[in-house]
Amino acid sequence: MLVSVKWLKDYVDIDIPPQELAEKLTMAGLEVDEIKVISPQFSGVVVSKILSVAPHPSADRLSICDVSDGAVTYRVVCGAKNIASGDVVPLARIGATLPGGYTIKSTVLRGEKSDGMLCSEAELEIGEDASGIMHLPRTMALGNSLDVALNLTDTVLDVNITPNRSDCLSMIGLAREVAALIGKKLKKPSVKLKESGEDIRSLASVVIMDDDLCPRYTARIIKNIQVGPSPIWMKSRLEAAGLRSINNVVDVTNFVMLEMGQPLHAFDYKFLEEGRIVVRRSKENEEFTSLDGKSRILPADTVLICDGVKPVAIGGIMGGVNSEVRDDTQTILLESAYFHPASIRRSSRKLAMPTDAAFRFERGIDPDGVIQALNRAAKLIAELAGGSICRNYIDEYPRKIFSAHDIPLRYDRIKKIVGTEISARDIKKILTSIDLTVKADGKGRWLVTPPSCRLDLTREIDLIEELIRLYGYHKIPLTLPSISVSETKSLPRIELEGRIRRVLTGNGFSEIINYSFENPLSADILNLPLSDRRRQTVKIKNPLSEEMSVMRSTMVYGLIETAKRNINNGSSDLKLFEIGKVFLSQQDALPDEMNMLSCLMTGRLTDTFWHIRSMADFYNLKGAVDNILFDLKISHCKFKSDEGEPFLHPGKSCGIFYYDEKIGFLGEIHPDVLEKFDLRNKLYVLEIKLDYLAEIWKQNKIQFREITKFPSITRDAAFIIPDDLESAKMIEIILEQQEYLLENVIVFDVYKGKEIPENMKSLGLRFSYRSPEKTLTDSETNTIHDRIINKLISVTGAKLRS
Amino acid sequence: MISELQKLEKNALAELETAETEEQISNIKTKYIGRKGLLTALLRNIAQVPDAEKPVYGKLCNELKERLNDLFDEKLQKHAANRKQNLLLKEKIDVTLPGNAVWCGREHPVVLVRQEICEIFASFGFSVVEGPEVELDYYNFEALNIPKDHPARDMQDTFYISDNVVLRTHTSPVQIRVMEKIAPPLRILSPGKVYRRDSDISHTPMFHQIEGLLVDEGISFGDLKGILTIFLKKFFGENTFLRFRPSFFPFTEPSAEVDIRCVICGGSGCRVCGQSGWLEILGSGMVDPAVFENVGYNAEKYTGFAFGLGLERMAMLKYGISDIRLFFENDIRFIRQF
Description:
The structure holds two protein chains of two kinds.
Chain A lengths: L1 E3 H4 L9 H9 L4 E8 L4 E14 L2 E10 L4 E6 L9 E11 L3 E2 L3 E3 L2 E3 L2 E2 L2 H4 L21 H4 L4 E7 L10 H12 L12 E5 L5 E4 L7 E10 L6 H9 L7 H13 L3 E5 L7 E6 L4 E4 L5 E4 L4 E4 L4 E4 L3 E2 L12 E7 L2 H10 L5 H8 L6 H15 L1 E6 L2 E3 L10 E4 H8 L5 H10 L3 E4 L4 E5 L10 H12 L20 H15 L3 E2 L5 E2 L3 H4 L24 E2 L4 H13 L5 E11 L7 E11 L15 H15 L4 E4 L7 E11 L2 E9 L1 H6 L7 E6 H10 L13 E10 L4 H10 L5 E10 L8 E10 L8 H19 L2 E3 L1
Parallel strand pairs in A: 12-23, 13-16, 28-31
Antiparallel strand pairs in A: 1-11, 2-11, 3-4, 3-6, 4-5, 6-7, 6-10, 8-9, 14-22, 14-23, 14-24, 15-22, 16-19, 17-18, 19-20, 20-21, 25-27, 26-27, 29-30, 31-32, 32-36, 33-34, 34-35, 35-36, 37-39, 37-40, 38-39
Helix pairs in contact in A: 6-7, 7-10, 8-9, 12-13, 14-17, 14-19
Chain B lengths: L1 H17 L3 H12 L4 H7 L9 H36 L19 H14 L4 E2 L5 E3 H4 L19 E3 L2 E3 L5 H9 L4 E10 L10 E12 L3 H16 L5 E8 L2 E10 L16 E10 L1 H7 L6 E9 H9 L6 H4 L2 H4 L3
Parallel strand pairs in B: 1-5
Antiparallel strand pairs in B: 2-4, 3-4, 5-6, 6-10, 7-8, 8-9, 9-10
């Protein structure tokens, strides 16, 4: 809310500079976002007195004036007619600048020298009157700068009002706070008014049909008004608050809304058929044209203000074109009502009409302030637009609006929450400074009643907050809680993720974080079949864009996009990983959220150009998985080639299994998918379900095994086998023989080409034999080794390569 | 005879001085103290020495032999060492060529900051918990004292999955889920992704928060100030200036916004702090009794405080990052800087 300090001073004597005021408000929970100084758009204009006016010898329309600023007398040629000797007027001296950047120079007009310019309101842009020179009070001291003399400079504070403080959406509400903060009294404006003529009840009636939406509706009628422009003081106040001046009647309703926080509406009485106001909820598909000229279909249950026949306003949100106050309006019906906050909020959101009135009603207005605002506005309209206020007012108040009173407040509870002692005297003083009524109940408690505008104060804790907010958070000493043991333990997965990060960064992978939402087309781009579970995505109803409208069900799409962005930026050697969630929609209200690890590799393996230059391939990425599994001490993982993914190269991909559970996949991105991304680089990706991995890891216990002191004996053997016989199968057959002296078997060579028949390969295996009890002899070793090899050959048909 | 010995020593030393190769040294060694060497010859001549001098002469001969032997060997060793050294130097490589390591990868800056914060709070006994990112309206709003049609919902622009399911707008719902399951005392930290329908230079539709909650008997606002002060000083440095300022969150009361003196300008006012000299760092407050009632805690017996902060903001201030969108563009040149 924009708060003019000058305006605020109408309600409280502020004797500190605006900067300090802003600081105090901020530290009391009314954060000042910005401090703006508003100064007039002119300089060098002073208060001066016309000493004489004489006709210009050669121009009928001009006159020559002698003007004094109290020290010097200037001769000024002037074209206005409304001046006479003795008038006090604004003088722009030589060197003065006027709005628009115009600088006053000494000139000669029709042969007569002119050393300055007398100004109109319009020329100074402090009013709209351009008909003649502005007249100032004759008592004004000459020579003073005009902006000082007229107090035109103002400071405007942009105060961020939190949703709980509806009472501070008004000047008086803020003034109440300021008064408490600087130890001054709040001065409320006068609401005394003079009634005359007919009784309102002979002219109008109010019926509330739906008191759940509108528990209170009050009205006054003002006759014989003259609609016209508002005075400068009114205009400048509205402008400082960010509102545009419209006419003296509408301006008063806005002014009182800003002053007291009660939105008001003025109807042109002659358009109210039968002189009746009927408040009811809208029916389905009712149409209405509001003041902004737009025709709208209203949602059901909107509060409608109707006359005897038709709707005339959307209650609490905006009036209608059909009953708008215009230049020829003579009689108005002024409305001051209380609308139900949630109902206004629903309607204003559905209608997309976040008006100033709706903003206040939905946060809650002072239920007891309705009449005061009605009277204040009636009084001001009568003052500014002439007119007479009809006798009495209508106050339909069928449903009592809740306001809290006698809230118990315990002294020891205050200490318990705050952690320090505040004296009973201070507590009472602070609470009464913001108009709370505090009574002692004689049992160590106070009974506190807040003013009706403080809808946010209903419970003891609300009062404690008020207390320490004004006491000052800075005065509460720092303490530390004593340690007590909590039952919660950190999740094992968090630790697992830390270890994986360590392994992967050590292996050269850098971590990325992609948005969780992505393009719904990603499933098609990744060639996911229609039956794929990952097509069961979670869709956002109100996405920022279509490209960000579904929650990702795999991280692969985002990885490829990130790789592409980096490649386009000139970084084509990449090792990336991401740890995060994927989302699959399911029967439950909430989707299945799975924690995933994903990696991507492309380009060169190292940055060392002068040394070995090898390119990332399937086995490099598989090595990263091996390293992770080694670090976690998880064995028994299998890589199955026929369990790849539709977006992976069918010959260079596999599923990662823990026993029969598929925990992830690994492979080269399918060339068709790359083509859709317009990429030529080979990309290798993997994705692993971290929740599974954490489960497996959690059950791991590391058990030390004795290191044998006897040497091992190795034997190499190469087998010629069909291409599609996988090394893992060969090793499996070897291990199945359960020769306990066989310590290890590894692949040391894979060869295709010369000497090897087509569709065959040579697989070199290195066997290590060791006994925990003794040094094995050659012949002992050979016996076992031959047994193993013969079995292998008989099972697979492999040929031993000599 | 003794003077002969002295002469011999002088000659030997002079020759050794001029010797340049190992061969020359060996030759000199043989010449003087070899089996047929000059000194050996002199020793053999002992017969011609008067009997009274014989012991002295013999002793001098032996001493001289030993001394010369040491000198020759010393010089020989030096030469041998030099030869080896020269051989090795022929293998000299260019040590300024870049190393051939697999370059380390880096963790994402948001993760680094998260870890640092989690470690600081671990020292206060906080453990890390998590909750879903797609959340029921009840947990994200209602249980946190933010009813439907309440203006406090304006504070966060929400992505909806359905009328009752949202992308969580803060990590606070985890508080509720944990309190529903576990009785006090409680010290938990819940980091994670949150989502708000907002996208401009200072907002991304997804970002990260950490929520903390401490519930026990006798926890006061002073404790909130104490813990958060220590935390911020550990994170931003011992000389960090901070202030606690009243604010409003529906699920805490009293609520406090915590500001630190601007780390960029030191408080004189700059673009980063919007000329105020202060930076909003975290929101906090005493848990509202209504929240305790929603999870079945005894609000008379237990009190507690909660706080929440944005990890991107912390990382931006710590590392001087100017644009929040950089965190999710994942340019490798960005990530490798941390």
